[in-house]
Amino acid sequence: MKSGLLIVLMVLLFPAASWSIDSITEFGVRGGIDKGSLHESYAAAEIYYLQDLPWQKRLGTGAMLYTRLDVGAGYLRADSQNDGWLAAGMDVVLSLVDGLWDIEGGFRPTWLFKHEIGEDDFGGPVQFSSHVGATLNLDQIALSYRYQHISNSDIYNENPGLDLHLVGIGVRF
After folding, report:
1. Could you give all domains of the chain from N- to C-terminal order, each with its CATH number?
2. Is 138 exposed, middle or buried (0-12, 13-18, 19+ CB in 10 A)?
3. Pick from 145, 72, 62: which is nearest to 111 by CA?
4. From the centroid of its chain, how far is CA 167?
5. Which H/E stretch holds residue 16?
6. pTM above 0.70, yes or no
7. Contact, 26 vs 49, CB < 8 A?
8. Quick check: 45 pLDDT over 80?
9. pLDDT at residue 80 is higher than 80
10. Average pLDDT of 93-121?
């Protein structure tokens, strides 16, 4: 039992060492604005870390489906206040043209430091972020766009949701 748990832990914590796969790590920044549907106007910035996970499937010449860990620390600026978030979750990525383009979708449980920002009340600190996006990979540089929705999935009385348009640049190694 202990050896099985150790193997699972090794695969999750050290996927590149556990499987003979291509594993990419990416660090970067992204920033953007909300779509303008709330009382306040928001600008956002995030420092992020992406790490490929061992679950990959080749789909044919030049195409692959894979998963990755997606972790970020964000800054949110409203007209009248600032806030931040921490988020960690997983993405599913469709890589096309031998990795030149990635189409992604993902989900991350998110912690807002303050849930009342100006006139907007997000209900509470526990939120959920989902996103779709596209990335152009130019050797070690990644240029990305992400449409991200943050809400609490109605676990609180208030749930206005926040929709962000984000662009990013990352370094891959």
Report:
1. 25-172 (2.40.160.20)
2. exposed
3. 72
4. 12
5. helix 15-18
6. yes
7. yes
8. yes
9. no
10. 95
Give the span between the Cα atoms of 22 and 106, in whole angstroms: 20
Give me the pLDDT at residue 5, please. 47
Q: How does 31-58 read in b/e, with b if 16+ C-beta sit within 10 Å?
A: bbebeeebebebebbbebbbebbbebee
3-state secondary structure of 162: strand
Give the span between the Cα atoms of 11 and 117, in whole angstroms: 40
CA distance 150 to 154: 12
Residue pair 96/63 in contact (Cβ under 8 Å)? The answer is yes
How many angstroms separate the CA atoms of 121 and 132, rounded?
A: 25
What is the chain's length? 173
Distance CA 123, CA 38 (A): 14
Q: How far apart are the first and last CA of the chain?
A: 35
Residue 120 and residue 40 in contact, taking contact as beta carbons nearer than 8 Å: yes
CA 63 to chain centre: 21
* Position 66, amino acid: Y
Structure tokens at 14: 């050290």
Angstrom distance (rounded) from CA 76 to CA 54: 32
What is the spatial distance between Cα 75 and Cα 10, in angstroms, rounded to a whole number? 32
Dihedral (C-alpha) 37, 107, 140, 9: value to the nearest 10 degrees? 160
